[in-house]
Amino acid sequence: MLHQMMKFRWPAWRQLGEEQKREIIKEAREGLGRMEQNANGQSALFSLIGHKGDFMFVHFRESFAALNQAELELTRIKLSDFLEPSSSYLSVIELGLYESSIKTYKSLIDAGIEPHSDEWKRAIEDTLVRQREAMQPRLFPQMPPNRYICFYPMDRRRGEDKNWYTLSIEERQRQMNEHGLVGRRYAGEVKQIISGSIGFDDWEWGVTLFADEPLVFKRLIYEMRFDEVSAVYALFGTFYVGLRCPASDLGNLLGA
Fold this sequence. Notes:
Strands 1, 2, 3, 4, 5, 6, 7, 8, 9 and 10 form a ten-stranded antiparallel sheet that branches. A hairpin with a 6-residue loop joins strand 2 (43-48) and strand 3 (55-59). The chain has 256 residues and is of the alpha+beta class. 42% of the residues lie in helices and 23% in strands. The mean pLDDT is 90. It folds into two domains: 2-92, Apc35880, domain 1 (Alpha-Beta Plaits, 2-Layer Sandwich), CATH 3.30.70; 95-242, Alpha-Beta Plaits, CATH 3.30.70.1030. It is elongated. It contains ten helices and ten strands.
C-alpha cells in the first residue's frame, strides 16, 4: 500500500484558461480511471478535509515495483504539475496470526523440532504458504467503494516502563484478541485494513478505515482506546480524513 498526501497549487490552477483546464482534467480523468481499474491492484483519489493536504491517493499493488510504477504514472500526467507532495506512507497489508502461530510453534516443539533450525524454518514456511493461499482475498483486497476514508499510522510503546516487544507471544495474542472483539462489532459499518511498515516507514503500522458514515470512525477508535493494548501500548500519528472522488468526478472537484 502507498498513501500519497498532496497539496494542490490553486493559485497556479486559477491562472489557467478554461480550455487548458479541460484538457488537463480530461487527461487526468483517463489516467486515473485506468489506475482505478488496474487488474493487479487499484488506486483511488480522496479529497482531504483540513489543512494537512488537499488530496490523498491510495494505491494497492502486488509489489513495491508496481507501487513505484503507480507513482510514476501519476507524475506523467499534466495535473501533477499542480500537485505538491506533503506526506506519504509505505506499508504492506498484513494479518494478525497470533493464535495460529502459537499453535504451530507448540506443535513443532512437541514434535521435538529445534526452534530456528532448518527443519523448523521449512515447517513454518509451509504453514505460511497455506495461510497465504487461504487468505489471498484479505492480503490483496479490492479498493473499498465507501465514501469516506480515515488513515493514521501507529506504534507499539517501547519505553523503559512499558514495552510491547518484551511481552510473551501468548500475552500479545490475548490483548490483540480483546482488541479485535471491538472491531468485529463494527464489521458491517467499517472496512479496516492493517498494514505493516516496520523497515519501510517512520511508524510501525498503518490503519486505513473505509465507511459511508464518518462518525463511525470516532466511535470505533474511541471504544478501542479503552482496550489494554491501546490504553497501555499504543502511540498514534497524524490522522487524515477524506471523501472519495472517482476519476469521473475530477472536473467537479477542481471546479472546471
